[in-house]
Write a structure and sequence with these properties.
heterodimer, A: 631 residues, alpha/beta, six-stranded mixed sheet, 24 helices, B: 610 residues, ABC transporter transmembrane region fold, four-stranded antiparallel sheet, elongated
Chain lengths: 631, 610
């Protein structure tokens, strides 16, 4: 970061304006400083181009004066040569500033995109519950571009304009102070004109933007509600709506165009007035021999060169303003901290013996998997009502414990806190005697295999998806073995073999579409492949048929290296073989026991679940028989 | 029909002739604004002529006024020069405005055409295309085209005219010197052609990588929980870094294309001017060239290069505008729901529907697989609903209940069999009036962002008695004061309030056929009862179809249809079906176990994924 100059004067408003400037340009300044070398080279070559740009009119002036003075021809050759040489160097320099300045802005854009995306990867589930993906994508692309543009095109136009404004008049004054003064007579009009219109353009531009967002929102809404529009036969009304919004947009755009289309030409006109004055007065000066015809010609060129910097200033300001608006939006997200943080003094896990031998290859250490909830409370971040209250529960290592309860009883909340996707209070949840907040976050999540209700697979091959949790340096044969075992356990291997490219088949939007049950089983295989110590299945097999589910569950019991398993399910068939069953009701624990214990109490919630399951099985059997009769 | 939007960019890179087609189509659209176009072009000609005459005036001033020391003529040329400047500047202002207007009008026309097209697309198109992608067409692509019009178009035409005009002037002023000065021109043409080709490639390259980056990031945002659960943050950040790096590389190589081209222009202009200094200056020394002409030559040669720089700078605007245009035209070519005229010669407009619905051996599938085999969602469905009947439709997820309703609304057409309404094939009716005579209340009430009033009447102005009837009905349903304040915004309504609003929405169109699609599954039993009473009253003597998974809802229906995997398994009244001891009665017993606790699962899964 550049050394921050403290606000100098005692003037409070000026000081705070300076502070504001420092705050809002922080991102921009950070990258300018980071790429100061490139930016420096870029500005230096740009300065050289602009300085050299002063020479050609002089060559023209001298050529004309040579012609008028009847000097020998070879002088002309020298000027022509000087002209070519100047443009040769300028050409190289033009290449230079483009490469240096624009490239540094591209690099800054790259860095900022990375910084922002990296930050996104740190934020927890509660952040993503609140934000829409469109908004985040727009920040990572459009707003990054706005900052980048300010650094590239913005800085370029500003520096270019500044160099011209400082240097050109100097040369003109040297050539003829009086003529300079006369030619610049219309000049003071320009800053006044720019200031006056710039603000108005900005305001009108913003209403155009607002109107544009309205159209976008309307279009989005209409497409989302297309079935309602069609069902109620309101196509004409909707068309009329967008037509009205569109006409408003056109009107606002034309309002803007009224000023904007006059802006550039008016500036041009003011400089051209300088040329008119030159023609009048400069002509007289030449006639009265106050200046040479060459000087007159040089002035013509210089005045024309002043048009661009005048427009450029307004342009660079708008680049800057856009970057500030974007920086503010991005900083708002960048300043957020994840509500799930690594403990400051994490427990030393895995134990020292497993860490010393091969630091680069942590051994496959597995924790025992005893879990304890102590006076556990939980509410989702930002929600006032706790989902669970006062839960006390001990789960011994190696047990299979099932949770049942109606929708909203808190099963998902109870199981979801273990991998710390959401923040948990200290001292409430313990894994093998250590508060989960004290576990190193990465190690905790490595020990837990969590399969939730939402199925999410990446648009990569089946193999890559199942091997997702394996350490990146797991060698290929081992990877293949682990994924095959996991897929077999999840009863999905046969399904995968039937896919067009087997386990190399690509999934996702552009790949094949699997059925809900296949996706669930792949998700389970993904969790199994990393051989977790604690396996959590939160209603994870709801789309898998009962027989397959039974195969999977008994397979899981028989697998080697099995530790604790926690299940939440709607189906009694899923939970009945568990070692322990916990019924959740009204945010707390209702009854608990084994299936045979719970089933004895008639009309209890568990009994009803069981009864319902029996009737459902009956129904399912009936339907299977029925399907046999379908042709 | 091209539904694969993602590949549009790559395909056009391979097929330049598509771009020519797009260009011609675009010209046809612009041609619709003849007056503006002609006025704008005339102004461009005027402005260019003025701009071209300015250096010449300087030449006259030098040769005819300054050197002969003619004060009066100098003054007159000065005044004339001022006039020319005024003409040039005003024509610049006017043409910028006119072309903006032209662009905006064309855009509005295209936006409306595109919007109308999107509304007319069959519902099945929306099943296949994510809404987000289609919206991008209506908004971003149209803007890209607008920018091409307002910025690119004028600059292109104006600048090309200036370049050509200057060349002509140079040759007219002095043929020999003109030829010498424009000697570099072929070099520029060759490099420009090369430049535009490399830039197009570099630009497309960057675009492709940008969409790869966007896709990666979007997927990760959606799957962030999984990334965290598997401790993959670092790996994914690394992968992002690679994609990001390759994007930056592509962007930088397009910078390089510009960087290589710019010096070429500088060198060419340097060479051209020095040629004029040497040859022109020598001839002026000999006296065979007037000094004023020499000065004008300098101006003209220099003026020729500025427009070229501007063309180069606007080239990307032009490219993205063309890409956008190609995609927009692509959508305009998609098939829409058949206009009535083509399907039925005498499309019957519905005025007095009785509500007699007959399904005759209806087969329907959403998709056909590669081998032309259908995955049937409805199989050989036949039943009859008499006018004024209350009908319950029951079945698991995927049994075809909602599909049946979609067919009745003609969102889709059955592949086999036919549906009759009041004895006529549904396909003989005008789609819109058919839909207008059906009132549907859905489980997930879709709210538009307008006021409650707008959501209720969907931008139609109802008759006063309809308005009163709807408001009265809503009041009876226990609508809160908030809901009856029609100017309020529709967002933030509770589920119950949304349900009441949806009922009012249907009631307002006074439907002859009522459809309740799981409409009462999310509300408490008291509200459900009230809604059912209101519905019974509103649908008196009208046909009512109720889809429900809570069987209690349909118990009193005249007829209950039970569907399983697209097959009509049983039908009859509640009592008849219980006596059959089949699907319905088993489902009914199953549900009554937990009925009192309200623990019925929101929807019965089919439990099969084979």
């Amino acid at each position: 970061m550049p050394p921050e100059a403290a606000s100098s004067g005692g003037d409070l408003t000026r000081g705070s304006a300076w502070r504001k400037f420092l705050d809002e340009s922080a991102l921009l300044r950070h990258y300018l400083w980071k790429y100061r070398k490139f930016v420096g080279y870029g500005l230096a070559t740009l300065l050289l181009v602009d300085l050299l740009e002063l020479a050609p009119p002089i060559f023209l002036k001298n050529s004309i004066d040579a012609v008028m003075g009847g000097k020998p021809r070879r002088i002309l050759a020298w000027f022509a040569l000087a002209y070519v040489l100047t443009s040769l160097i300028q050409g190289f320099c033009r290449y230079g500033w483009r490469i240096y300045l624009i490239r540094s802005s591209m690099l800054a854009g790259r860095d900022l995109r990375l910084k922002f995306s990296d930050h996104l990867f740190q934020l927890s589930a509660s952040f993503y519950d609140k934000r829409r993906i469109g908004e985040l994508m727009s920040l990572a692309t459009n707003d990054v571009d706005a900052v980048r543009m300010a650094m590239g095109a913005g800085l370029l136009t500003m520096a270019d304009a500044a160099f011209y404004i400082v240097t050109v008049p100097v040369v003109m004054v040297i050539l003829s102070p009086q003529l300079t003064l006369l030619a610049f007579l219309p000049l003071p009009l320009i800053p006044w004109f720019v200031m006056r219109n710039e603000r108005e353009i900005h305001t009108r531009f913003q209403s155009v933007q607002a109107s544009f967002s309205k159209i976008s929102a309307m279009a989005q809404e209409n497409l989302n509600g297309i079935r309602i529009t069609k069902a109620f036969a309101r196509e004409d009304e909707q068309h009329h709506r967008i037509q009205k919004l569109g006409e408003e947009y056109v009107r606002l755009n034309l309002e803007l165009a009224k000023i904007q289309s006059a802006f550039g030409p008016t500036l041009d006109f003011m400089m051209s007035l300088g040329l008119v004055i030159l023609l009048f007065m400069g002509g007289r000066f030449v006639i009265s021999d106050l200046v040479t015809l060459g000087t007159f010609v040089a002035f013509q060129r210089y005045i024309q060169k002043m048009v661009w910097p005048m427009t450029a200033i307004g342009l660079s300001l708008s680049y800057y303003q856009r970057s500030v608006a974007s920086s503010i939006r991005m900083e708002e997200v960048l300043s957020l901290q994840s509500d799930v943080q690594e403990s400051l003094s994490p427990a030393e896990l895995p134990p020292a013996a497993f860490r010393t031998s091969k630091a680069a290859h942590p051994g496959p250490w597995k924790t025992a998997g005893a879990i304890e909830f102590r006076k556990f409370h939980f509410g989702f971040p930002g929600s006032a009502n706790p989902v669970l209250r006062n839960i006390d529960l001990k789960i011994e290592a190696g047990q299979r414990v099932a949770f049942v309860g109606s929708i909203g009883a808190g099963k998902t909340a109870l199981l979801g806190v273990l991998p710390r996707l959401y923040p948990v209070g200290d001292g409430m949840v313990h894994l093998d005697g250590v508060d989960i907040n004290q576990w190193p976050l990465e190690e905790l999540r490595r020990q837990i295999g969590y399969v939730g209700q939402e199925v999410f697979l990446f648009s990569e091959s089946v193999l890559e998806n199942v091997a997702y949790g394996l350490h990146e340096w797991t060698d290929a044969p081992k990877k293949l073995l682990a994924t095959h075992q996991a897929m077999t356990l999840a009863s999905v291997r046969e399904d995968v073999k039937l896919l067009s490219h087997g386990e190399q088949t690509r999934l996702g939007e552009r790949g094949v579409n699997l059925s809900g049950g296949q996706k669930q089983r792949l998700t389970l295989a993904r969790a199994l492949a990393k051989e977790p110590s604690v396996l959590i299945l939160d209603d994870a097999l709801s789309s898998v048929d009962v027989q397959t589910e039974e195969t999977i569950l008994s397979g899981l019991r028989a697998r080697s290296g099995r530790n604790t398993e926690l299940l939440a399910a709607h189906r009694i068939s899923t939970v009945k073989d568990s070692d322990w069953i916990v019924v959740l009701a009204d945010g707390g624990i209702g009854r608990q026991g084994t299936h045979s214990q719970l089933i004895t109490e008639k009309n209890s919630l568990y009994w009803k679940f069981h009864e319902q399951q029996r009737l459902k099985d009956d129904l399912a059997e009936y339907l299977r028989d029925l399907e046999g009769t379908f042709s | 029909m091209n539904l694969n939007l993602e590949t549009d960019e790559t395909s056009s890179a391979l097929q330049p002739q598509i771009q020519m087609k797009t260009f011609r189509r675009l010209l046809a659209v612009i041609g619709g604004q003849k007056k503006l176009l002609i006025a704008g072009l005339l102004l461009i000609f005027l402005g260019t002529a003025a701009a071209l005459s300015e250096p010449r005036l300087f030449g006259y001033a030098i040769d005819d006024a300054i050197l002969p020391k003619d004060w009066l003529l100098l003054r007159n040329i000065g005044i004339f020069y001022l006039l020319v400047v005024c003409i040039r500047v005003s024509s610049m202002i006017a043409q910028a405005y006119l072309f903006e207007k032209l662009g905006q009008r064309v855009m509005q026309e295209l936006r409306l055409a595109l919007f109308a097209q999107l509304q007319a697309l069959p519902v099945s198109t929306y099943d296949r295309n994510p809404v987000g992608r289609l919206i991008t067409r209506v908004t971003n692509d149209i803007s890209a085209m607008a920018e091409m019009f307002s910025a690119g178009f004028v600059t292109m035409i104006g600048n090309i005219l200036i370049v050509i005009g200057t060349l002509v002037w140079l040759l007219v002023l002095d043929l020999r010197l003109g030829l010498i000065a424009s000697a570099v021109f072929p070099v520029i043409l060759i490099t420009s052609a090369h430049f535009s080709r490399s830039l197009t490639t570099a630009y497309r390259n960057a675009r492709t990588r940008l969409s790869a980056l966007n896709a990666f990031l979007a997927e990760n945002i959606l799957g962030m929980k999984v990334v965290h659960l598997f401790n993959r943050q670092k790996i994914h950040v690394n992968r992002f870094m690679q994609i990001n790096e390759s994007l930056a590389d592509a962007q930088i190589s397009s910078v390089k294309v510009f960087a290589y081209f710019q010096p070429t222009l500088t060198w060419c202009s340097g060479i051209a001017v020095s040629l004029v200094i040497w040859f022109g200056g020598s001839r002026a020394l000999e006296g065979s060239l007037k000094p004023g002409i020499l000065v004008a030559f300098f101006s003209y040669v220099l003026a020729m290069f500025q427009p070229m720089r501007e063309i180069v700078d606007k080239w990307t605007v032009f490219l993205s505008g063309m890409t956008a245009a190609e995609r927009v035209f692509g959508i305009l070519d998609w098939e829409t729901e058949m206009p009535v005229a083509e399907t039925a010669i005498e499309a019957v407009a519905l005025s007095d529907v009785r509500g007699h619905i007959v399904f005759e051996n209806v087969w329907f599938a959403y998709t056909t697989d590669k081998h032309g085999g259908e995955h049937w969602v409805l199989k050989d469905l036949s039943f009859e609903i008499k006018p004024g009947m209350q009908v319950g439709i029951v079945g698991h997820t995927g049994s075809g209940k909602t599909t049946l309703i979609s067919l009745l609304l003609r969102f889709y057409e059955p592949q086999k069999g036919r549906i009759l309404l009041d004895g006529k094939d549904l396909r003989d009716y005008d789609r819109r009036s058919l839909r207008a005579s059906i009132g549907i209340v859905q489980q997930d009430v879709f709210l538009f962002s307008g006021s409650i009033e707008e959501n209720l009447h969907l931008w139609k102005n109802p008759a006063p008695e309809t308005r009163a009837k709807v408001e009265g009905a809503m009041k009876n349903l226990g609508a809160s004061r908030h809901l009856l304040n029609l100017d309020e915004r529709g967002s933030n309504l509770s589920t119950g309030e949304r349900q009441i609003l949806a009922f009012g929405r249907a009631l307002a169109s006074d439907p002859k056929i009522w459809i309740m699609d799981e409409a009462t599954s999310n509300i408490d039993s008291e509200s459900e009862e009230r809604l059912n009473t209101a519905l019974t009253e509103a649908s008196k003597d009208r046909t009512l179809l109720m889809i429900a998974h809570r069987l209690a809802t349909v118990r009193s229906a005249d007829l209950i249809l039970t569907l399983h995997k697209g097959v009509l398994v049983e039908c009859g009244s509640h009592r008849e079906l219980l006596e059959q001891n089949g699907f319905y009665s088993k489902l009914y017993r199953y549900q009554s176990v937990l009925e009192k606790e309200h623990l019925v699962e929101p929807e019965l899964g089919t439990s099969t994924d084979l």
